[in-house]
Amino acid sequence: MADEAKKEAAPAAAPQAAQPSAKVAQILDLVGSLTMLEAAELVKAFEAKFGVSAAPIAVAAGPAGAAAGAAAAPAEAEPAKTSFDVILTEAGANKIQVIKAVRVYNNTLGLKEAKDLVDSAPKPIKQGVPKEEAEKIKKELEAAGAKVEIK
Question: For the chain, which residues make up each domain, given as ranges?
Fold first, then answer.
């Protein structure tokens, strides 16, 4: 029974793809005449009204596609990044100074929690901070003897 419905639906879909109805043709003409700003506004309105997303879906690709995608992704993602994570990768020789510096930038940690965090490196110290603040934290922790990364 489901096969019959599929057979009936398939022929009906084929003519629509070849020759759109007058109403669909009129809508296509209207959409074609929109400016880029109006088209973007239309997309946002569709997303809001129908609860859909116009974002492209990630599709697994073969090795050739993966190499091209991997090269393009960092170039696109880098300029858009506005928040950074400060990661303690190694405490270094002066662990006490590093623990003190960690507590300065993560004031929710007690002495024991800060020590545990430093001992279990690599761990994030601060997450979602602006680049300037991340650089400042990195500089202070490195001055205390730690090795730090910003991601």
Answer: 20-54, 81-150
Nearest to 86 by CA among 144, 137, 120, 147: 137
Res. 66: pLDDT tops 60: no
What spatial distance separates the first Cα and last Cα of the chain, rounded to whole Å? Answer: 55
Contacts of 34-39 with C-beta under 8 Å, sequence gap 24+, read: none
Cα separation, 62 vs 96, whole angstroms: 49
Peptide bond into 122 cis (omega under 30): yes
Determine the CATH number of domain 81-150: 3.30.1390.10
Mean pLDDT over 121-143 rounds to: 84
Instruction: State if pTM tops 0.85.
Output: no
2-12 pLDDT, tens digit per residue, is 444 444 544 54
64: left (phi over 0), alpha (psi -120 to 50) or beta: alpha
Specify whether the CB–CB gap between 50 and 43 falls below 8 A: no
Q: Which two tokens stand for residue 142?
A: 């490195």
Specify which residues 148 forms β-bridges with: 88
Please enumerate in sequence order all residues whose Cβ is within 8 A of that of 42, keeping only pairs 6 or more positions apart, or say none: 31, 34
